[in-house]
Amino acid sequence: MSSPLPRVGHSGLDGDPDGAGHVSADEYRRLMSCYPTGVAIVTAIDHSGAPCGMTCSSLTSVSVEPPTLLVSLRSASRTLDAVRRGGRFAVNLLHSGGRRAAWVFSRRVPDRFSQTMWRPSPGFGAPWLVDDAFAVAECLVTREIVVADHTIVLAEVVGVRQTEATPLVYGMRRFSAWLSDVFTDAPVLG
């Protein structure tokens, strides 16, 4: 029998049998900060031919056949506008040395691409952050779903370049390098 979870902040669980209480934005951010994730930068070319991009920790594998992923992008972002207009984008998976790029692309910084080395990806020319990404996936948009102030973009992966490197992760509101030797006796899944 498990013990009840300690109360950390307001939630719909205390005294509300339906669990239908309100969760504040701060509570939700605190909850999600406890879930570590890899760090990616989604990039695209806008209608004028200029590169644009944003840090994205909402990246999920959806299917292997066909290879499909999803990213969640802020609906009002210039990056999403470029993704919609072009129907394509790149996902740059950052290595542990890519912290500065992750920070730059997560803020409203003018001319982000002048602060990092990039070149067109091999397939269709989306910005590839060659010094900060250990992998890049070229993606073609297949579907969009608007959820509140974000848009979930489903895309088929049509090209991949990858090298060996330690991934950058984000959790507890800070960046860190993946610790690959923590669970050396754990079975490999998949």
UniProtKB/TrEMBL annotation:
Q: Does the keyword 4Fe-4S apply?
A: no
Q: Where is this region: Disordered?
A: 1-20
Domain Flavin reductase like, which positions? 32-177
One Pfam entry for this protein is Flavin_Reduct
Q: Does the keyword Oxidoreductase apply?
A: yes
Recorded hits in InterPro entries, A to Z, give: Flavin_Rdtase-like_dom, NADH-dep_flavin_reductase
Membrane-spanning segments = none
Per UniProt, the keywords (alphabetical) are: Oxidoreductase
By what name is this protein known?
Answer: Flavin reductase
